[in-house]
């Protein structure tokens, strides 16, 4: 009979251990609600509720105090040997769900800490932001090359209609009559065309990168 009672008690203890600790409402009183964290020598004061917003996180498990045995300093704050610089944005993310960074703060640093504390939603947000930044950096704005072509009125239509290879018509300048062919004056035009150049990954482009104005006569 003694053995049966022992086994029964072990089963009961096992069942209690399996219960999710965050289903149990925290005891009333300020002592239970507020949590002090000493992160790399900097003390942060927050609530159990904030730390348990992400229930799979190291911080939630820490303040539940059942799975992780963490050392405490003389004030009773949990000691965490991590960089406090990046802990502020992480704690604020748990408070309001937004990632707010100073412009000088490296996202890689936040990502490292988010992965250490196991805060899944924050890891995804930072990775998305880093991918967007990489994408915009690789999108080099196009440079324009301009060319000025000289042609006569009768050649103009043909020239504009046969432009290819990404050349775009920009402007037409009438420069009057320069030549006499018998009795007829042929009006001369300067036709300005442009082309966008995208830099290739190695930084070299297929055309001169400065705005080249090439004056040529169409025959």
TrEMBL record:
Q: Could you identify this protein by its name? A: KCD17 protein
Q: Where is the BTB domain?
A: 33-134
GO BP terms: namely:
positive regulation of cilium assembly; proteasome-mediated ubiquitin-dependent protein catabolic process; protein homooligomerization
PANTHER family linked: BTB_POZ DOMAIN-CONTAINING PROTEIN KCTD17, POTASSIUM CHANNEL TETRAMERISATION DOMAIN CONTAINING PROTEIN
Q: Which Pfam families match?
A: BTB_2
UniProt xrefs under CDD domains: BTB_POZ_KCTD17 (cd18391)
State the Gene Ontology terms under molecular function.
Answer: cullin family protein binding
GO cellular component terms, alphabetically, are: Cul3-RING ubiquitin ligase complex; cytoplasm
Q: Which SMART domains match?
A: BTB (SM00225)
Q: What is the source species? A: Atrichornis clamosus
């Amino acid at each position: 009979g003694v053995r049966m009672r022992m086994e029964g008690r072990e089963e009961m203890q096992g069942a209690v251990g399996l219960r999710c600790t965050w289903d149990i409402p925290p005891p009333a009183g300020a002592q239970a609600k507020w949590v002090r964290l000493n992160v790399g020598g900097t003390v942060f004061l927050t609530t159990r509720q904030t730390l348990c917003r992400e229930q799979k996180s190291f911080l939630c498990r820490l303040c539940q105090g059942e799975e992780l045995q963490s050392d405490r300093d003389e004030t009773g704050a949990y000691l965490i040997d991590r960089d406090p610089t990046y802990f502020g944005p992480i704690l604020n993310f748990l408070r309001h769900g937004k990632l707010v960074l100073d412009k000088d703060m490296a996202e890689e640093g936040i990502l490292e800490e988010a992965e250490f504390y196991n805060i899944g939603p924050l890891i995804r947000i930072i990775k998305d932001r880093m991918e967007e930044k990489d994408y915009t950096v690789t999108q080099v704005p196009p440079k324009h090359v301009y060319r000025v072509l000289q042609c006569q009125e009768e050649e103009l239509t043909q020239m504009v209609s046969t432009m290819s290879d990404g050349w775009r018509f920009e402007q037409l300048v009438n420069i009057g009559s320069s030549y006499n062919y018998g009795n007829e004056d042929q009006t001369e035009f300067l036709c300005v065309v442009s082309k966008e150049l995208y830099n290739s990954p190695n930084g070299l482009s297929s055309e001169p990168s400065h705005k080249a104005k090439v004056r040529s006569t169409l025959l």
